[in-house]
Amino acid sequence: MSYRIGVGFDVHQLEEGNSLILGGIKINHIKGTVAHSDGDVVIHAICDAMLGSLCLGDIGLLFPDNDSRYKDIDSKFLFIKVLEEVYNKGYKVVNIDVSLVLEKPKIQSHVFKMRKKISEYSANIHKNIKKISHNDISIKATTNEKIGYIGRQEGVACHAVVLLHKI
Ligand SMILES: [Zn+2]
Predict the structure, then answer these.
(1) Residue 108 burial by CB count (10 A; 0-12/13-18/19+): exposed, middle or buried?
(2) Residue 85 exposure: Cα atoms within 13 Å on the Cβ side
(3) pTM of the predicted model as reported, rounded to 2 decimal places
(4) If residue 76 lies in a helix (H) or strand (E), which one and from where to where?
(5) What are the backbone angles phi and psi of residue 109, rounded to the nearest 5°?
(6) Topology of 3-166 in CATH?
(7) Terminal CA-CA length for the chain
(8) What is the pLDDT of residues 134-146, one digit of tens each?
(9) CA dist 97 → 34, 41, 148 (Å)
(10) Beta-carbon neighbour count of residue 90 at 10 Å?
């Protein structure tokens, strides 16, 4: 089988005084995510999509939130670990598509930085493995039309789809 596909979804609560990190970029906002790690829903959803594509479980299984090693961890390290698993299983990422759902703030001006940042993360795997180009990492964002927990700015959610190809 040469192609595999996976879907990922993540939600974090938003509270005043916490930091908001999305796609590896710190965004100035009155509210930030409540989390055991840095609460980066974008990276978490991508990790789950990669794990899902290979039937490897989910990040909750790999990095339990009651494990003190993962307290406040930079999600970059989770991403690198999961991507290493992908390569160890003999696959590479073809492309990633992300849909962020949050009411505020507008993140359009940060999207390119997020795509570049995730591409940079992927350069850390192995010197012989090409990094994922930012042109193969799509990040879109939408509001929840003021409806529900996202609309009330109580949380942020993220969906991701990843396509893998056998190396
Ligand atoms: Zn998460």
Answers:
(1) exposed
(2) 20
(3) 0.96
(4) helix 75-88
(5) -70, -10
(6) 60s Ribosomal Protein L30; Chain: A; (3.30.1330)
(7) 11
(8) 999 999 999 999 9
(9) 24, 14, 24
(10) 10
- Ligand 1 mean position, distance from CA 39 (Å): 5
Write the pLDDT tens digit of every residue in 36-53: 889 999 999 999 999 999
CA of 146 to the centre of ligand 1 (A): 22
Angle at 132 between CA 7 and CA 128, to 5 degrees: 125
Q: What residue ranges do the domains of the chain occupy?
A: 3-166
Instruction: Compute, in angstroms, the gap from residue 35 CA to the centroid of ligand 1.
Output: 7
The full length of the chain comes to 167
Distance 14 CA to ligand 1 centre (A): 12
**Angstrom distance (rounded) from CA 43 to CA 8:** 10
Distance 156 CA to ligand 1 centre (A): 10
